[in-house]
Design goal:
This protein has 328 residues and is of the alpha/beta class. The chain contains nine helices and 17 strands. The strands form four sheets. The chain has a five-stranded mixed β-barrel with strand order 6-9-7-8-10. A four-stranded mixed sheet has the order 12-14-16-17, with no helix packed on it. Helix 2 links the parallel strand 1 and strand 2. The longest helix is centred in the middle third of the chain and has 16 residues.
Amino acid sequence: MENTTKKTQETKKEAKKAPAPVLSIIAGGNGTRLFPISHGGCPKQFCRLNETHTFIQDSIKRFMDSGFEAKRIVIVVTNDKQYELALEQTQGLGVIEPNILLIPPCHDYAGAMTVSDDFIEEKFGDVVIVHTPADQYVVRGEAFTSAVRSLCESAAKTPSLLGVFKSDLNTVMGCGNIYFEDGDGAVRLVKGFEEKPPKEIAEQMLREGNTVVNSGICAWKPSQLPKKFRHITGALKTDELMNEFKKLNVVIGQFPWYDCGTLDSYWAISKKTPNHQNASLHANDGRVYRSNCLRSLFVTIDGVDLYASNIIDTAVVVNQVAGKLAIG
C-alpha cells in the first residue's frame, strides 16, 4: 500500500512538471552588412560557418546539445527563398517542415518574435519560448548549456534576457548592452539598456563591470507579453518591446560569443592556417578578408579589397594590367 501511494505521488509530480521549452530561431534577415559573402540569394544565416555547418545549422545543433527537442524548434523566415534554404539546411536535423514559419517581411526582430509567439502558443500552449538570432557564433559547451538552463528557469516566472561579459572595447561599442543590479548569482534584475555607446561611456562600463552585452537571446511565455503586442501585424522595434516589460531579468553568461554582422567579425571566427599567413598584401593599406580558406594565398594591390570564402588549395592574385583589374 505504501509503495502504491509513493508511485501515485510521483505520477502527480510528473503531471505537474512544466512542459519543455520551445526554441524560436529568427532567420529572416537579409545579412546586408556581410555583403558580398551574404546576399539576397543566400543571407548570412544560411552561409557556411565552417567546413560542416552553416550558421543556422550550428544554431540548431547548439540548442539541441543543450536539451532542446528538434520537433520543438521553430524557424522564422520572411520570404520564399529563405523558406527553401531553411527547408534544405534543416533536413536530417529533425526539424519538421510545419515548424518553418513564413511571415511577412515587414517584421523586424522584435516583430518576428511576437508573431512566432502566436504560432507557438497555438501549437504548444503557454510554454517558455527561447528566441535566438540565427547568425551568431557561440562556442558550444557546458557554459552555454548552463546559461540556457538558467534562462529557461528564470523565464518561467519573469521575461529574461541572456547577456555575455565581453572585455574588449570594440564589441561593447558595437553592440547593445544591459545594465544589471548588484547581487549574487547569474540571474540579475535589468536596470536599463545602452545601445552602441560612444567610447567614453563604453570605457566606463568596462571599468564599473555592471553591464553585459545583449546576445539577442531572450525567453518568456506568450502570456507574459504586454497585451498591446499580442497578435501584432506591423513593425515593432526591439527597444519598444523591452521598455514595455514591467520587469526583466538578465542571465549572465560566461561563454565565447560573437555577433557576426561584419566582415571583420566573420574573419575573426573563421578557421585559418596555423600561422594565420594565408594572405599577402601588396600594399600596406591593402585589405584581404578571408574566411574558411585553407592552404590558400591571396595577393591584392593598393586600393582593392578582396573578399574570399570557402576556398581551399587556391592562389588568388589581383593585379592591374593595361589599366584594368585582372584576377588570376
